[in-house]
Amino acid sequence: MSLSDGHNRPAAAAGVESGRDNRHPAGDKRAAEVTSGRWSGASGRLLSRYGWVALLILATCVVNVLTAIQHDGGSSSLVRPVLDEATSAAVLILLLPILKQSVDALGTTSDRRVAFIIIALAIVAYALLHVVLMVALRAAVYPVIGIHFDFHWRELPAEFRKDIISAFMIAVVLWLIDRRSIATGRDATATADDAVAGAPRHIWLKDGTTTVRVDPIDVISVTSAGNYVEFALAQQRHLVRGTLVAEEARLKPFGFARVHRTRLVNANRIVAVEQHTNGDFALRMDTGAVIAGSRRYRDAIAAIKEASRNDA
Fold first, then answer.
1. Which of 19, 70, 191, 219 pairs as cysteine with 280 (C-beta 3.0–4.6 A)?
2. Of 242, 115, 262, which Cα lies nearest the Cα of 180?
C-alpha cells in the first residue's frame, strides 16, 4: 500500500463526495438511490412495517369501541363511539412517519443522547398534533352527519397525557419491528467454527427479494442511504435494509473502517491516502475510485497507515 504525504493530489472523480459532514449533512448521503426499483423491495417493506403498526392501532380502536358499548349498556347508537375511534386512528396512522423518522435516529446518529432527544421531541410533537388534528377532523365530519361536536380545550392536558403514552408505546413497537427486520433481513456471516476449519469467509446480502453471497474482499465501500445501506462492489451495488452501525460491527473483522459519518471503506482496497490541511482526507481505492473521509475519523486513517508500515 502506497501512502501519499499530501503533496500529490488525486485526480478528480465524479464519485467523490464532500467530506465536510459537519457543515453539509445533506451532501453526505446518496438520497436518490434508496430503492432497488422493485415494489417488493424498499416500498414493500416500508408498507409492511407501517401496516403492522396501523393494524395494532385499529385493533386498539375496536377494543375501545367495545368497551364504550359495554359501559353504556348498549342503549345508545354506535355511531358516536365508532366515529370517535375512527378519527383518532386516522390521525394516529397519518402521523406515524414522525415517530418512524425519530426512531431511525438511533441507527443513524452516532451520539445516542442526541437520538433520544430527537425521539422525545417527536413524541411530544406527535401527541400535540394528534389532539389538534383529531379535533379539527371531528369538527369537520360530525356536523355533516348531524352529530353535535363541542371540544373543551380544558380537556387538552388529559388528552395530551394519554397521547404521550400512546406515542411512546408506538415508538417502542416501531423500534422492535425495525430491530426484527434487520435481524431477519440479513443472514449471518460464516461462523467462527467455519473460520477455524479454513472455510471461505463470506457474507450474505438481501437486496429486495434476492439474497446474494459476497466475499467481503470484493466490497469497496458501504454507505448509509436512509433506512438502508449500499454495498459498492467493483461492478455492482446492493441495497440492503439495515443501519451503518450494525454493518460496521459485522464488517470490522474483515478490515472495514468508518471514515465518514455515513461511510465505511474496505481498508484492504486502499492504495493511497491524502491528508488535507483542514484535517479531512481522501482515499484512493484500487478500482480508481476516490472516497472522501472526515477529520472526525482520522484515527481510522492512522490505524491504516500503521498497518501499511507493518505490512512493509
1. 19
2. 242
Sheet of 270-275, strands arranged across: 270-275, 281-285, 290-293
Of 266, 256, 271, give the one whose Cα is nearest residue 220: 266
Residues 53, 167 within the same domain: yes
C-alpha cell at 86: 375512527
Find where cell 480508481 sits. Answer: 288
Full residue range of the structural domain in which residue 248 is found: 25-36+208-311
How many domains does one find in the chain? 2
Contacts 24+ apart (CB under 8 A), 38-45: 38/208, 38/209, 40/208, 40/209, 41/207, 41/208, 41/209, 41/239, 42/208, 42/227, 42/228, 42/239, 42/241, 45/181, 45/185, 45/241
Residue 282 cell numbers, joined: 481522501
Contact 170, 130 (CB under 8 A): no
Query: What pTM was computed for the model?
Result: 0.44
Contact (CB, 8 A) for 274 and 292: no
pLDDT tens-digit readout, 167-214: 888 888 888 877 665 555 444 444 444 444 444 578 899 888 888 899
152, 185, 218 - which closes a domain = 185
User: Is 197 in contact with 182 (CB distance < 8 Å)?
Assistant: no
Cα–Cα distances in angstroms (integers) from residue 156 to residues 63, 135, 303, in the given order = 23, 10, 56
Domain of 239, CATH number, reads 2.40.50.1020
